[in-house]
Amino acid sequence: MELRAYVDAIRHQLAVAAAAGGDDARELAERLTAPLESAVRLALLDALSEAATEITRDLAPGSVDLRLRHGEPSFAVTPPPAEQWADEAEAAAAAPPNPVPQPPADGEDEATVRISLRLPEHLKARVEHAAGRAGVSINTWLIRAAAAAVDTDSQHHRADTPRRSGVATGGQRFTGWVR
């Protein structure tokens, strides 16, 4: 991965900004460019390293390492063992789907908390309409929607960790974003 294009873009933006300040500002920007280049490269490498760490957390026990060769960064991907994919796929297939949990019936002893929720007017109207169609109160409808979203999110998190779609590498598939 070449950092030169990113460093040059920052250099260009500095020159454009300095041009608005006249000749003195332009000369100062030219003198600052060389020392800033190394700071910008270091900041970019730190960002790439942090991204590799975050991807490794999601890919564990596989990993993504950032390597520096000839002053330019590159990534080394170590996929998790193939048997882990099979175990997780079997577990996901065997798990029964979680039904949408229903709120407790009136009279059930369950602790509740009060929150303040601010909705845009158009969304509030849509929520009221949906609750009316379901024949429940807005509060009950929101509780059901929140419970369904949390359950769906946790199911997707289990099924997606580690992620198995994207670029094929050694029989395995990975996804992610790196700039």
Cα separation of the termini: 9 Å
Detail the poorly predicted runs: 162-169
* Structure class: mainly alpha
Computed over alpha carbons, the radius of gyration is: 26 Å
How would a textbook summarize the main sheet? 2 strands, antiparallel
Note the beta-strand portion. 5-15%
Strand order of the main beta sheet, please?
Answer: 1-2
Overall residue-averaged pLDDT value: 76
Helical stretch tally: 5
Helix content: 55-70%
How many E strands? 4
The dominant shape is flat
Query: How do the SSEs run, as a string of H and E?
Result: HHEEHHHEE
Structural descriptors:
mainly alpha, two-stranded antiparallel ribbon, 179 residues, two-stranded antiparallel sheet, 4 strands
Write a structural description.
The chain is mostly helical and about 180 residues long. The protein is built from five helices and four strands, in the order ααββαααββ. It has helices at about 5-20, 25-60, 80-95, 120-135, 140-160; strands spanning about 65-70, 70-80, 165-170, 170-175. The protein has a two-stranded antiparallel ribbon. The protein is flat. The N and C termini lie close together (about 10 Å).
